[in-house]
Amino acid sequence: MPQFSDDLYLGSAVTYMGTDVYPATSTFTGAIQTTTLTVTAMLSGDPIVVGMYLDSSTSLTNGTYITAFGTGTGGTGTYTVSASQTVATATIIGSGNALTGNPSKPDIGVGPVGRIFVWDAVPQAKLTTNIVAAAVAASGSLTLAAGAGVQSVTTTSGTTVLQLDCPRAVATTTGAGSPTTVNITVSGYDYYGQAMSEVIATGTVASTTVNGKKAFFQISGITSSGGSVVTVAVGTTDLLGVPVRVTDRGYITRAGWDNTLAEDAGTMTIAATATATTTTGDVRGTYTPSSAADGIKRLVMAIALPAISVGPNATRQGALGVTQA
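RESULT FIELD:
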């Protein structure tokens, strides 16, 4: 969680930062055909999120969990599940993963109430193929493979995901030839464990990289809407995810890069504040340094936090942005 820099002579006090985290539970009516879950009605509980384990009084393969959004993004619609099976329409309970609540008093903190957040990161070099290797895509799930700067890890809920070195946007890259545009849907989690997804259209231009907008920390699944004709790869970018919501560039009090005192001439994209969808921008904002990351250059950014982000009146949205989708 955030590190605070403030006037140390003011002494220690409670720092109001950190979040309430509670498990997501959802009850809905649905059916499964092969690896597609179709939800026709939401009955109670939280929105459906990637990583939820599924259970039902009807026979359902043990350990089945949701790996990606389809047409559904929390409510009715389709979702991809981990195990191929046939389940007739039934009441299904989804549980696991975690939702992030309002900022609260953390167990340990120094004060006074923080007003400057110091973001310190040394991002690895971006690669076009370190999430999905270049291959002709067919409709359905693509094969995830952890390349340089990416690790395959198991979450506390038992889901296997690819974890990036730091939160950052991902990109698709087409190969040579005459590509047919397809929609690549990336599903996973942000740095705070919130489920999220993004649709990136590959376009019809060969040998072209298309950057996403959202900063993923973990990726649980990637699907293609159809056949791509040419190869498609998925990799990382230098669009780095800001750890707290920034709604105005004026809140950036300092951006240092590559061990220099001069202000970095990078690109700051402020947080998307409208209701999140699979095509909106990052809910906290992203920063692209002025030169390529290489695992050596360090980013040190000081961010001024307004009262809605930190303090006794802070909110989850004020600190971490609108709910991910």
